[in-house]
Structure formats: structure tokens, C-alpha cells
Automatic annotation (TrEMBL):
Pfam families: Cytochrom_C (PF00034). Residues 15-116 form the Cytochrome c domain. It comes from the Bacteria. PANTHER family: CYTOCHROME C. Keywords: Electron transport, Heme, Iron, Metal-binding, Transport. Gene3D superfamilies: Cytochrome c-like domain. Transmembrane segments: none annotated. This is C-type cytochrome. The keyword Coiled coil does not apply. InterPro entries: Cyt_c-like_dom, Cyt_c-like_dom_sf, Cyt_c_1A/1B.
């Protein structure tokens, strides 16, 4: 039983997943990719998110709302977006459930920051 628990929480003997990575894997990974081989999926890849202009990932077909958004991604903008994407950018294609918990948003943003 202990071995099963260890393997479930420590894939391939690696370090335990951070809260942000666990949340990303559950809530974001189906649509977004990160890492050295990240490619656009249903949503754009999220490498180098911090400091990037919204709607600017090459090869991703953004909604006009994001293409025309005049923001640079930072933690505050990211938080406002995850809390209510359609309010932040009316007309966005994003269809995720709203994330209201500030700590979860912070954890995801910190995790994404490891790919800057």
C-alpha cells in the first residue's frame, strides 16, 4: 500500500509535484502545453507567459478579443483572466471553469513561471 501511494505521488521516483503543477495537470493540460516541446493545442502553449503580450503566440488562432487586448501578462492580469475570462476579455474563446481561489491561481502562475 505504501509503495502504491509513493508511486502515485512520485512518478518515476521524481520530486513530488508542486501544487501549481498538480493543478495545471488537472485543469489546464488538456488545452495548454508547457515545456521544451510545447505546441499549441485547443489553447496556446504557455511557455514564456510572464511579460508576453496577450494574443501573441505564433501560430495560434486567437479570438479578436485577445488579439486586440492591450495587456502584458503578469500575475494580476492572469488572476483576473482565470477568475472570469469572458468578463476580462468579452468575446474570448476560453471556456474553462472559473478559478476563484487566489492561492490556486498564484500556484499555477508560479508553475508557469518555471517555463520562462
Amino acid at each position: 500500500m505504501a509503495l502504491c501511494l509513493f508511486l502515485a505521488t512520485h512518478p518515476s521516483g521524481a520530486q513530488p509535484l508542486s501544487s501549481g503543477e498538480r493543478t495545471f495537470n488537472v485543469q489546464c493540460k488538456a488545452c495548454h502545453a508547457v515545456g521544451p516541446n510545447a505546441k499549441n493545442r485547443v489553447g496556446p502553449q504557455l511557455n514564456n507567459l510572464h511579460g508576453r503580450k496577450a494574443g501573441s503566440v505564433e501560430g495560434y488562432k486567437y479570438s479578436d478579443a485577445l488579439k486586440n487586448a492591450d495587456i502584458i501578462w503578469n500575475e494580476a492580469e492572469f488572476s483576473a483572466y482565470l477568475k472570469n475570462p469572458k468578463q476580462k476579455f468579452p468575446g474570448t474563446k476560453k471556456f474553462n471553469p472559473h478559478v476563484a481561489n487566489e492561492q490556486i491561481i498564484k500556484d499555477i502562475y508560479e508553475y508557469l513561471g518555471t517555463f520562462n
